[in-house]
Amino acid sequence: MRVQTYNQALLEMANASLAELARTGAGRAPRTQAQESHFLSLWLADSLKEKRFSRLVMEDLKGWVQQARTQGAGADLKGLLSRIVRHYSQAAREGLGARLMALLDDCEQAGWQRITEYALDGKARLASQGQASIVICAAELASALAGDELVAPLTLYVRGDEQQLARFAQCHGLLIGQGNKKQTRVKHHKGHLLMPANALPALALLAQERRI
Fold this sequence. Notes:
Helices cover 45% and strands 10% of the residues.
């Protein structure tokens, strides 16, 4: 019996859903965004009933079906599934330490404050006059890295454009957890989890497709 990871199950589900959308639309007039969301919400609801996919993604499916029922086309299920495929298909399993350093370089070059040299003891407050910033506890960073590898969970404390952060993460093959204000040690920052081998237990922060 094949044992899937959350990442594998999520990617399989997203690919299968988009393939079914394309298969059933072949040779027909293009669907509107509302029609695409309606089709996908029914497909995902049926997938839940028929247990087509791993139970690892069951809560995701439930949430998206409910979202589509309340938001209709605004749920943009096709866009969400496309972002999952685009981001998760590029996710790396090795060299995450080096990839994190490259992401931090990108943030710094984009004008963010990069603070990784201080230990965080209790709740910290950063005086940055509104400048975007990314903070990592120095002690946690040292213990989480072994050469170019990430060997332990690490929290990035972020205040800034999360879409920019998601684009940097995608560029470097990283999956960064969605922000959590309740579990932060830096005031006005959100805690974003990074896991060894990109093995997040829930959906990562996803980059929107940039429109010209």
